[in-house]
Amino acid sequence: MLPTEVFTCFPGQMWDRVLSKVKKAVVFMDDKCAESLHWNGGATSVFESGARNLKQFSSFESGGENEPKAVFVVSTLLKGRTADIIQDIVGLSHFQYCVVFTTVAHSIHLLANNVTAVLEGNPVFEQFGDKLCEWMGDMNYTAEVMHAPVVFAPVSPQLFLAPTFAHLFPLLPRDLEAINMKRPEKKRFGSLTDVDLHSLTPELQIEIKSLASAVNSMFESTSTREESFALGPMSRLIAGELANHPQAKNRRKTAPNKASIVFIDRTLDLTGAAGHHGDSLVEKILTVLQPLPGHTTDVQVDMLELTNLQRTTDSQPTLAPGCLVQTQSSTARLLWETMLASKQKEAVMEVRRQLVEAASKENLPIKMGLGRVTPEQLCSYIQLFKSNWGALESHCGVIQLGLATAQTLRHPTLPRWDSCLAFERLLLQALGDSDFAGVLRQLLPLMKPRAAKGEEGSSSEYSSGSRLGEEECGPDELLVLLVYLYSLAGEAQPADNEEEEEKVERELIGALTLVITREAELSPLLQKLTGCGSIEELTMERAHTAVEGVFDTLRELSHARDHLKQLNSVYTASDGVHQAMYRPFLRQVLEEIFHPDRPESPDIEHMSGGLTDMLKTGFSMFMKVSRPHPSDHALLFLFLVGGVTPSELRLIREVVSAHKPGTQVLVLSTRLLRPTDVPELLFTTQRLVPDIGV
């Protein structure tokens, strides 16, 4: 059996290709590649490999007069905007030697240039190399252009993220309408499950092919033959592309190692993504702390407490933030993995234990505290390192994770998490007892502008209590609650009166519009949703139009599992003894995969990649031929298209250890989700036209 360590090494091996070229070079890197590097050794590895400088991939950057070598690392096609930026940088510099790495394979560059013939060599890369020499001003200078799939970020040994595809998200019925509008009436698709790859926009085709190519590179590098399975329309397209990848066909004939990979659409369970039921410290850290600029996963940890600076409005930008990634210290790396995989209480206890251990090693005067861990207690331990530079340097990783924990636990917006959780539980119980209009009506009391709550003259329900400003839900949380509720809409009792539901929706649209327009400032989500950079730009009409669009999308969410025969519900109604429960879709899928009787699931579709597989599938209709099953191999990959939550990582580990402990499971995903990511992906992302840098 192939150990998972072989796969864990893969992202680093791909970065080694890049690092082998950076000696004495100025390195220019786009945000997506920079995020991947961040989890693969960070900027330190670039400088240790001999680079002179590391700069943002931007037309406003350039090399100095005494810097003749440049390396570009980009996650996009080498044409359009990407080519323009490279030309700008080269034009402003004095380079004589340029190396360009792109994560997009040459075969996809051919497709993007409408070349269908099979060509020898890498003509597109060679042509771009000639352009580089032209831009450098001498055709005798050196230019190299190559493919390096530096796509995966090893967040933990069990989890790889692909920041390059962070905004790739399964399609919704409104996307189907857009696809059908461009097709003749007789050739329109009835549902998303009928859509084929060639009917998508060129941008989305390139995105899907690039993702399949990156996964193929991983299997190629590890000599693995995979069986692909899919749940959901987008997963079906990706798995089909991987199964029919030209290089994959040759690899499968000779590859000695075997694995199964199951692609799953995030839209099949938005309840789990939008819910606050995970009991995960990392989920809360990701939600309340600000993201690192240009990153989708890591956050900024305020390091001010370790300095003698006074907290003023000006001091923050001068101080570099800490972060969650700890690639230099094995102790800090293990602590991060524990935080990611454990329940909150266990994770916080482990943070305290590691801080106490670090202080003890440095003989710092620590006062042991038992019982409940408080942010004040964690900060008091961290303060001990403040005046001891050697100790601070030795335990920097653990200290950053300790600060992230303390800052999250005392964050003024954290009480909103518990408010959302309480309301979600209330909604779960209500779903089994009333129709959807009745459940929706329970949201109306929450839909009040924040400035109005607690003001003189407002109801006592909102004016009592000293922490209301912290606990009340803002527009972002209200949007998350709406996603949570609408994802379960199909579980409510049948409606007697559909007009009542429409009436409540109209009330909610009006109330939410008012909430948004009364905000003191617009959050990043609201800026994207309304298209306004500030509250001053926002009119009532623009807010109303945006909210109506939100509800158009919300109404489609409950139909995501309509095409499934067996795994079509994530809700268990109350039976009088037990309360109504959310049943995670992932748990159901894994229990189906690891069922001792190995039943053939009607919902987990095997994607055949060759004639033998097709014959096997065909003969199985008439003869007893065993079709591939996801549990056939001791190594299973789960690829969640659209994101995975930290609590789902723990759930996967628990289900596997309970049902089939010998199986190794690696999780791949496009991003690590926080609840507020879900409205952004649903309401503000151009799913059909992703940004491919052209």
From TrEMBL:
This is Sec1 family domain-containing protein 2. One of its GO terms (biological process) is vesicle-mediated transport. It comes from the Eukaryota. It comes from Oncorhynchus tshawytscha (Chinook salmon). InterPro entries: Sec1-like.
